[in-house]
Design goal:
The protein has 11 helices and 12 strands. By secondary structure, it is of the alpha/beta class.
């Protein structure tokens, strides 16, 4: 098997699996319990919080705030956006965002728009300096700016620290939310609210986090026992948190190695006829999106799967639907219909790329003749 769909989900690493199993066997107590098993659970959660706060910025300086454990990025994004809705009334009813957001952000913004909030969505294809364009849209009525650090379909990355710095300079009251699902542990991050997901960095599904900077405030979406300082009621999944912390500690983003794999892939694709590259130089090296013109995405995906090669046509959450994101990068409708996304992990090697491209070439020959 050659797995090249790591932007959709990753295989849990050995460290994560061991940590989950150890917690299930030895620290299965409720973190709210007063006995020893409860104390063990609390200690696991506290250690995980410290690890994540140190890791999230991508610098030596820990994040100045707290971390809220959630069920994943969808909950984190919803909590960030809907939990900040109380700010819309006293400080304006305007949100600046992008046309390339994940559905968990895009659909939540549409929900707020239906409630009367003004939503401004910018597309990268329309702006040479995308960060400057986003900042330019911030005014005195902008309560929130929400942008993804790294796009999940193309790998397009923005300079998040610069974005945060310049937004705060223009309007200190504007809350900056960063969807860092693809950027976590890969690019420098900053923000008032930062959403991350465990299963994108070799942890399990069902665990994520929302980082909340000191001074920022979100209202809880769930009512109940008041766990996690009243921000997210529900018994903490200690086992998943332990696995998340282990995965974060073990994760290594080998930028140079991924760049080599990307360069090899682009080189081999360039030798084929009528291939469009949708990932630009502004993209992280572990995600490559391209279009095999004349071969629809689902046909290519199923052809590759016959040889045990797994890629995708875009966001896993779209379930085969045409991408709403690629047009915002200037990709034509025809190229959208034949787009392929390849995303690497540390387990991938040059031989994987060679086998992928060999199968793509054979599929092209079979379909186009």
């Amino acid at each position: 098997m050659i797995y090249l769909d790591n932007a959709a989900t990753t295989k849990p690493c050995t460290e994560c699996v061991k940590a989950v199993n150890a917690a299930m066997e030895n620290a299965f107590g409720n973190a709210s319990s007063l006995h020893g098993l409860g104390t063990s659970s609390i200690q696991i959660i506290a250690r995980a919080r410290k690890t994540l706060l140190t890791a999230v910025t991508g610098t030596k300086k820990p994040f100045d705030g707290e971390v809220l454990f959630t069920s994943g990025a969808t909950e984190s994004n919803n909590t960030a956006l809907l939990g900040s809705a109380h700010r819309f009334r006293p400080h304006g009813k305007r949100i600046v965002s992008t046309a390339i957001e994940h559905p968990s952000v895009a659909k939540t913004l549409t929900r707020l728009e239906e409630d009367g909030v003004e939503i401004v969505r910018l597309a990268p294809k329309d702006h040479e300096d995308f960060v400057a364009a986003l900042v330019n849209e911030v005014d005195e009525n902008t309560a929130l700016l929400s942008a993804m650090a790294v796009n999940n379909e193309t790998g397009f990355a923005i300079d998040v620290p610069r974005l945060y710095r310049e937004v705060k300079k223009k309007n200190p009251r504007t809350i900056v939310h960063i969807d860092a699902v693809q950027g976590f542990l890969k690019v420098p991050l900053d923000g008032d609210l930062i959403s991350v997901s465990g299963h994108k960095i070799h942890s399990t599904k069902g665990i994520g986090a929302l980082f909340i900077k000191k001074g920022a405030k979100v209202l809880p979406l769930l009512s109940g026992g008041g766990q996690q300082s009243g921000l997210r009621s529900g018994t903490e999944p200690v086992e998943l948190i332990a696995g998340f912390e282990a995965a974060v500690s073990a994760y290594r983003f080998d930028k140079e190695r991924f760049a080599e794999l990307k360069a090899l892939l682009l080189q081999m694709l360039a030798e084929m006829e009528d291939i469009g590259i949708n990932s630009t130089e502004d993209c992280v090296p572990n995600i490559v999106n391209f279009s095999v013109r004349g071969v629809r995405s689902e046909i290519m995906l199923h052809s590759l799967e016959e040889d045990g090669i797994y890629v995708s046509s875009g966001s896993a959450c779209s379930k085969g639907k045409s991408s709403d994101v690629l047009p915002a990068f200037g990709v034509s409708e025809k190229d959208v219909d034949c787009a392929v996304r390849v995303s690497f992990s540390a387990e991938n090697c040059a031989e994987d790329i060679e086998k992928l491209c060999d199968k793509i070439a054979k599929t092209i020959e079979r379909i186009r003749r």
